[in-house]
Design goal:
399 residues; alpha+beta; 5-stranded mixed sheet; 3-stranded antiparallel sheet; disordered C terminus
């Protein structure tokens, strides 16, 4: 039995009893993704009839690695052109064969990278595009512990545009961005510094609560680290429902980005990953326009930005999970009382500023009503645990 929507506030309270259910949700999601990936492979084989034979050369372990990658979610769950799917399968399979089994690709100019982004083989013609301190022909992602690696240089990472409406460059677009100097990579020394910070942040999450740490490492399927020269002093974290399980961090070395900020980002995006999987297994809405925000929206009491209904509902869940994390005794012990209190306030403030259910009034009839019940319950729990008198200020939801 997987996590149901009504149980979401409970597992976001990080109760250990839900650990097994989270694992079952993950397994059920991957099972459906694998079936969808099989359909995508069949469609792509019409464009390249060698693909199925190539796929069958993979070991079961490699098939599992490809099928559980964020890229797999894109090709399994979306209507992608067969030519684009064919390119993905060709590179991903050759990369697995090369990285895991040592099988050389017959085409030396075919750039290879694993679907998980943990191994990248440069095409000879692209070597000059990389910094002078990186003469490696093959690049392995840097481990930050607990089975999680940081991807700095594969096309999975460098191809992210950091823009919601166009999240991933094609191979040819990425090549052009490199040539135009629009891709800004870390130096190897900077990579080492980033890895050390992320490794320590992850260790502290595990020390705060082992179950939360395991959730982060289980649902962060790919961790991408980027520089954003447009706003070099601004740290951001992000994820998307198109590439489920991929966390993108930008400007990790910017001033003020301490271990608390990084821990918060890792927990934040792992919650999104769970919610994206949950959505796929049981749709949250009855009208697709609600997802895209066409004609619907709500202003976030956390950021002040106008969000689509999907973003708003996810934000309510994510901030609740972060509030519960930062109010744990272990968070105070690992990050200090001042930092834990500040992070807890950032998470809780939106629950105080607005009647969250009231903000959904124009579109909540198009959602699963249990979602609205959960948002109402989470707001009450935050207020009741901090200032019980404030609970009276939340309007009871009207039918």
């Amino acid at each position: 039995m997987t996590i149901t929507i009504d149980a979401t506030p409970d597992w976001l309270g990080w109760e250990k009893e839900f650990s097994q259910s989270l694992g079952e949700l993950r397994s059920a999601y991957f099972s459906r993704t694998r079936r969808g990936l099989g359909i995508a492979l069949a469609n792509a084989s019409a464009h390249d009839d060698s693909l199925i034979g190539l796929w069958l050369r993979l070991s079961e372990d490699s098939i599992q690695r490809v099928s559980t990658s964020p890229l797999a979610s894109y090709f399994a769950w979306h209507n992608v052109q067969p030519s684009e799917s064919a390119d993905f399968f060709r590179r991903a399979v050759h990369a697995e064969l090369r990285a895991r089994d040592g099988v050389e690709c017959a085409d030396p100019e075919l750039e290879l990278w694993t679907a998980q982004g943990d191994w990248f083989g440069k095409a000879k013609s692209r070597a000059q595009l990389f910094p002078a301190d990186d003469a490696r022909d093959q690049i392995e992602a840097s481990s930050i512990g607990y089975g999680l690696s940081a991807d700095f240089r594969s096309p999975n990472a460098t191809g992210i545009l950091l823009e919601e409406d166009h999240p991933q460059l094609t191979s040819s677009e990425l090549e052009r961005h490199f040539l135009e100097g629009r891709v800004h990579l870390h130096t190897l020394a900077e990579e080492s510094e980033v890895v050390a910070k992320l490794a320590e942040a992850l260790r502290r999450i595990h020390r705060v609560d082992k179950h939360i740490g395991e959730t982060v490492t289980s649902f962060t399927l790919s961790l991408v680290v980027r520089n954003d020269p447009r706003q070099p002093s601004r740290f951001t974290s992000g994820s998307t429902g198109q590439y489920v399980g991929r966390t993108c961090l930008t400007n990790v070395l910017a001033p003020g980005v301490d271990l608390a900020v990084l821990a918060d980002a890792l927990v934040h995006e792992s919650i999104h990953s769970v919610l994206y999987m949950q959505e796929k297994m049981a749709p949250w809405v009855t009208d697709a326009d609600v997802y895209s925000g066409v004609g619907y929206g709500a202003v976030s009491p956390w950021s002040g930005r106008t969000l689509t209904p999907r973003q708003f509902m996810q934000a309510c869940f994510v901030w609740f999970g972060l509030y519960k994390f930062w109010t744990m005794p272990g968070a105070v012990k690992e990050f200090g009382n001042e930092r834990a209190a500040a992070m807890a306030w950032d998470a809780r403030k939106g629950f105080y500023r607005s009647d969250l259910v009231g903000l959904t009034s124009s579109w909540r009839h198009l959602t699963d009503p249990i979602l609205i019940d959960c948002i109402y319950a989470m707001q009450k729990m935050v207020m009741k645990s901090d200032y019980p008198a404030l609970v009276e200020g939340i309007r009871e939801r009207r039918a």
